[in-house]
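Go through the following before class.
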Amino acid sequence: MKKRDLLTLRDFSREEILALLQDSILLKKLRNAGAKYLNLLSGKTVAMIFEKPSTRTRASFTVAAYELGAFPVSYSSNELQLARGEPVKDVARVLSRYHDLIAARVYRHEDLEELARYSSVPVVNLLSDKYHPLQSLADYMTILEKKGKIDGVKITFVGDGTDNVLNSLIIAGVKLGAKITVASPRDYMPREDLVGKEYLSKIQVTEDPYEAVKDADVIYTDVFVSMGQEKEKEARLKAFLPRYQVNSELLKHVGREDFIVMHCLPAHRGEEITDEVVESKNSVVFDQAENRLHTSKAVLLHLLYPEWTKYLGKQPLHQ
């Protein structure tokens, strides 16, 4: 089987993304029906490299590998020789001789690209400064569950238009037919070098969050200060607050009651979103978090066992 990486969803077609979402929903149904452990990847090992802290990504990908029968091994950058200056290309060539897949959460997307270039096994982006494809898969799985469709659904993102989560949300959303609006301050609007001209030309961008949320099916936000941006905290909070906070006053302008509120977590409650909104009946943030598990399973199977559904009935389950 030819090696396939998942660094950004730019490299995946609409049909492939839909297949991943459909598989994710099937895997969730199987797990809820009692088929928690599947031996589909028995005998395989998965390496996970973490340069940044992680809760949902580490937990979901670890559990996904384990429940599929693979053995997950987690490395921090300090535990590898990366911290002492070993080239990324050398780490890639070594780890890919031990493991069947490498997943990495990195500060620089370019390091992820080099890891993939020199690895002989699939490489998965667990988050970089530019993209977070696994998050967007969980996001669209959640939208599909809650809204019954993605095509034509209006998604309004309020906050940092250069956000890595938003970049992946736009790329996948344009491919899937979502109507995306971004409300950001002028200095933080989506960038063509991160999103791509072909995607940027198909979304709406405004400085007015109140106009942006009108008739939205989905209101999405993320932190104003991401990991690695701590030195910009004062300037960023000044630019975003209070105008771009997702709060009850902003949500009054949606004009409908059946919208959902999304956040990739962790949330800085009181900054980009209020505690009241996170805990509201419209919030689906914890459904999003759960779906990180199911979409991680789908990605692992897509890259290591793409024919899994054909053989599912023949595979033994272990309880």
User: Anything to note?
Assistant: The CA atoms of residues 60 and 122 lie 18 Å apart. The chain has two domains: 9-132+292-314, 135-288.
